[in-house]
Each structure stands twice: as structure tokens, then as C-alpha cells.
Amino acid sequence: MRPKTPKMLPWLAKSAGVPIARAEELWADAIRYATIETGWVESSEYWSVANQRLLELLEAEALTCHPPQLTPWVMINMRMGALPMIAANGFALAWTAALDRMNRCHHRRWMDLRRAA
Questions:
Q1: Are 30 and 57 in contact (CB under 8 A)?
Q2: Does 45 have pLDDT greater than 70?
Q3: Lowest mean pLDDT: which of 23-27, 33-37, 82-86, 108-112?
Q4: Considering just the CA atoms, what is the radius of gyration of the chain in Å?
Q5: What CA–CA distance (Å, rounded) separates 81 from 96?
Q6: DSSP H helical segments within 1-117, as ranges?
Q7: Rounded distance, CA 74 to CA 93, Å?
Q8: Contact between 61 and 22 (Cβ < 8 Å)
Q9: CA–CA separation, 16 vs 39, rounded Å?
Q10: What does the mean pLDDT of the chain come to?
């Protein structure tokens, strides 16, 4: 027999980003924990411990399902750290293009001199 779930369970599950089926499993774990901790069933202390444990389990489950997002400041710092590499890449591309133009120009002159000879 399934233990009765609190009426707030769907809302708590949705706010934590946890599927309702998983939240019901966590509620059953919280009930077992409260029974072991208090030794009594259906007392106010029992329900308090069960609800507190459920919130802890939902929070832990939410972190495993949805890892914390990087803040914009971290993303800006990551981009700032990449700037020297971006600048070096741009410099290398410009240098390669300049050498390519220079080689084509010298190749044409060499071909013109060869035809004239």
C-alpha cells in the first residue's frame, strides 16, 4: 500500500524540476526516515521530520537533475580568458594571407621573367 502523499507534492516536484513519480518515491523515503528517526507514526514530530526530509531529498534530486547554471560573470571571464587565443588566431590568419599574396606576386613575376627569356 502506498503512503498518502501531501497535496503539495506535485507543486514541490514541479518547483524542484523533479518528475512526480520520482517525488512520490522520495516521499516514501522521507516517511521511512521519519519512522526510524521518531519511532512514532502520525505524530506532529513525525510529520515535521518527514516534510523536512522530503525537502532535503527534493533539493538534492534537483541538483542531480539540473546542475547549477554558470552565471554571466563566469561566462564573461571565460571569454576574456579566450581573447589572447582569438587574437593570436586572427594574427596568424592575417600573416598567412599576407604571405600567400606575396608568394603569388613573386610567382607571377618569376613566370613573366621566364616567358620573356
A1: yes
A2: yes
A3: 108-112
A4: 33
A5: 24
A6: 9-16, 20-38, 44-65, 72-116
A7: 29
A8: yes
A9: 29
A10: 85
- Is 40's pLDDT higher than 90? no
Calculate the dihedral angle through the C-alpha atoms of 93, 95, 98, 102, rounding to the nearest 10 degrees. -130
Q: Are 47 and 4 in contact (CB under 8 A)?
A: no
Please enumerate in sequence order all residues whose Cβ is within 8 A of that of 26, keeping only pairs 6 or more positions apart, or say none: 18, 54, 57, 58, 61
Residue 75 CB-density burial (10 A; 0-12 exposed, 13-18 middle, 19+ buried): exposed
Residue 70 Cα to chain centre, angstroms: 7
599574396: which residue's cell?
A: 101
- Please give the grid coordinates belonging to residue 110: 618569376
Grid cell digits, residue 117 = 627569356
**The pLDDT value given to residue 22:** 92
The predicted model gives 76-98 an average pLDDT of: 87
Query: C-alpha grid cell for residue 78?
Result: 571565460
This prediction has a pTM of 0.55
